[in-house]
Amino acid sequence: MQKIKDYVEANKDRFLDELFELLRFPSVSADPQFKEGVLNTAEFVAQKLKDAGADNVEICPTAGYPIVYGEKIFDPSLPTVLVYGHYDVQPADPLELWDTPPFEPTVRDGKIYARGAADDKGQFYMHVKAFEYMVKNNELACNIKFMIEGEEEVGSANLGIFVSANKERLKADVIVISDTSMISLETPSLETGLRGLSYVEVEVTGPNRDLHSGVYGGAVANPATILAKLIASLHDENNHIAIPGFYDDVVELTDEERKALNAAPFDIEEYKTDLGVAEVWGEKGYTTIERTGTRPTLEVNGIWGGYIGEGAKTVLPSKAFAKISMRLVPNQKSERITKLFKDHFEGIAPNYIKVDVKPHHGGEPVVTPTDSIAYKAAEKALEETFNKKPVPTRGGGSIPIVALFEQELGIKTVLLGFGLDSDNLHSPNEKYGIENYLKGIETIPLFHKYYAELSK
């Protein structure tokens, strides 16, 4: 352990400089104007894998953005670890809410502020630097494969095709993903499950053109008003999702499971203060921890229509739109939930407007076993690094490819994340703690060591 710490300390400035260089690439996969930035990021990642000691590094083309692959197979008799990450990032909008430019990493109070700092550049790059340490110090305990993609933030549409076509190449004993969070540096944790996702876009159309709100207001239905009413009807007075059949496949936690889940350290007042809210909100009968990790949700991610520019324009819009995401829990299927939503939303629409529900992407919920060799190896590694046994938690986010990997490759995943829920993922002023980054680099070689030992 001390040898790893010494190496990280001696190379800390370089590790940070390299991460800052990676963060400067505007690799926004959702926006075509950033295409060059995404492709340049793939080149950078491939070069850094080569520099760290990977063999057979390749930028693999897909119908969208490429997947960077690299490996180090030094002893086929040893276990193989497949590291997954993504080099694309969310759009930085709204830019005016950033305190510093999103693609110019800035350090404040020990945190790196930049788009992608925690999701997922800072986290997957820990594995590259840990790999460098293991190669240079002859401490490789497992064979390693890297698969770093560029379309995670837009649904990984081409990853499944790549995985299906490269099953032999991707053969491994376990997949490690660092794209999740822990409770805190004082209370390390390991996520044991992730929610699934159903993402849709709704379009409501009224008149055949925008209308003067004085001339036509009160005589023609306003799509923005009707959309707001339809969305409001999706939750009942207990904040329960009011779509028939939505909860049919949800398995309720036992009293023992709920008790264990709520034993994790959590300060509700600190939570509210951090978010700047007077009270929490959610499904009646469940705690905040349960709501964010074990219950399905339906949230509006964006809503627009009509005039939204400066000043006033008295218009009754022809169309209104919303983007809606539903987080799913084990046993729920994204395809079924998407159909339930579409049928319900179109079914409750009044006949004086037209509704079109367009499915985007989805993914299945997963639960990772806590009795596996991989989980125990991660647990031992974190305990050695943090001097405290990690707490098992459930993650509220979604990584749809975890279910894909299990389906296509038959491999379980361990979620070895070092981010924090307060890192502003997908929001302005995203950040990642320097200590989190360096702790990750220290911990990952220990995971490989213990995984090899426990696999014997």
TrEMBL record:
What Pfam families does the annotation carry?
M20_dimer, Peptidase_M20
Q: Give the Peptidase M20 dimerisation domain ranges.
A: 193-352
Gene Ontology molecular-function annotations? metal ion binding; peptidase activity
User: Could you tell me the superkingdom of the organism this chain comes from?
Assistant: Bacteria
**Which SUPFAM superfamilies does the record match to this protein?**
Zn-dependent exopeptidases (SSF53187)
- Keyword Metal-binding part of the UniProt annotation: yes
GO BP term, example: proteolysis
- Which UniProt keywords are listed? Hydrolase, Metal-binding, Protease
Stored Gene3D superfamilies: 3.30.70.360, Zn peptidases
Residues crossing the lipid bilayer are none
Q: Does the keyword Metal-binding apply?
A: yes
For this protein, the record's NCBIfam families field holds: PRK07907.1, PRK08201.1, PRK09104.1
Name of the molecule in the record: Dipeptidase
